[in-house]
Specification:
10 helices, two-stranded antiparallel ribbon, 9 strands, elongated, 2 domains
């Protein structure tokens, strides 16, 4: 029987259900009997149920297969297509970012997408940092956003320009009508008012980019890259860029910009003057000598 990636949901009669991944994802379905996940015993599975689950998994059904009579649920979902892939830094130009913001559309969903875009682009935040702040973490009078727990658990305050506030204001008006919670939250359903997930942000950003005709991979981190490159082009000191991006060391910021900003090198070499020689020198053909 072929090996598949397994997620097991174990339930005890006196406790709530939990979801844990198997330590060894290469186990066969038949090997689930008499094994435990985080101290939770897994009920035995009959060979007939194993064959049915393997058939459903081979068909690529997204819904998990449930076993009647046993407190076990096994999902045979295929892994994401981009798992393990590393993408090079590719900051988009301003015209492409504006095109995607316009393609986001009107209404609450469009205002929310534009809000997360300007927070990542004009404040240089990571997607997790952009989704974490609450409404009370904004300070419009100073143009600042408080990051209570950034990368490494560090607390910092970043700035955002007037352009960012202007495009964030429509979403702030809609946000006041929702339950108290994260600034960028879910709009409908039982999780209304709870934090928006990074995966959902990436999905909506890809759809808006495709609608705008942008022929590149567009992710929230690329907006952060664009923020760093633009600040470097404007002559902002490196230490200010470091604190804005939340890097632990200045060397990280230097490597960060060195890897994604080649425009200065290209422009400098391209503007070089043509070679010259003294007027007294005469270029003679070797055949004429």
């Amino acid at each position: 029987m072929a090996a598949v990636s397994l997620w097991v949901q174990a339930k005890q009669s006196c406790g709530p259900a939990i979801v844990r991944p198997l330590a060894d994802r290469g186990r066969r379905l038949a090997d689930l009997s008499s094994c435990s996940v985080g101290g939770w015993m897994i009920a035995a599975i009959s060979p007939t149920n194993c064959q049915e689950l393997m058939a459903k998994g081979a068909c690529g059904l997204p819904a998990p297969a449930s076993l009647a009579g046993n407190h076990v649920r096994v999902s045979c979902r295929p892994p994401p297509r981009d798992r393990g892939m590393r993408y090079p830094a590719d900051p988009p130009p301003v015209q492409e970012i504006i095109a995607v913001m316009r393609a986001a559309g009107a209404g609450a969903y469009g205002d929310r997408l534009r809000g997360v875009m300007v927070v990542c682009w004009r404040a240089g935040l990571r997607v997790g940092e952009a989704l974490a702040p609450a409404e009370t973490d904004l300070d419009p009078s100073q143009g600042a956003i408080l990051i209570r727990k950034g990368k490494g658990g560090k607390r910092r305050e970043v700035g955002i320009d007037r352009f960012g506030w202007e495009h964030l204001d429509p979403w702030l008006e809609r946000r006041r009508q929702l339950p108290v919670g994260a600034l960028l939250c879910v709009l409908h359903g039982p999780s209304r008012g709870r934090p928006w997930s990074p995966a959902a942000v990436c999905s909506e950003l890809r759809r808006a980019a495709a609608k705008a005709g942008v022929r590149r991979r567009l992710a929230p981190d690329q907006l952060r890259h664009a923020h760093a490159v633009e600040m470097a082009h404007e002559g902002v000191p490196m230490v200010v860029i470091q604190r804005q991006l939340g890097h632990a060391h200045l060397g990280i910021t230097a490597i960060y910009l060195h890897g994604i900003d080649n425009a200065e090198i290209i422009d400098t070499v391209h503007r070089r003057a043509a070679p010259v020689i003294p007027a007294s020198s005469r270029l003679r053909s070797p055949l004429a000598l």
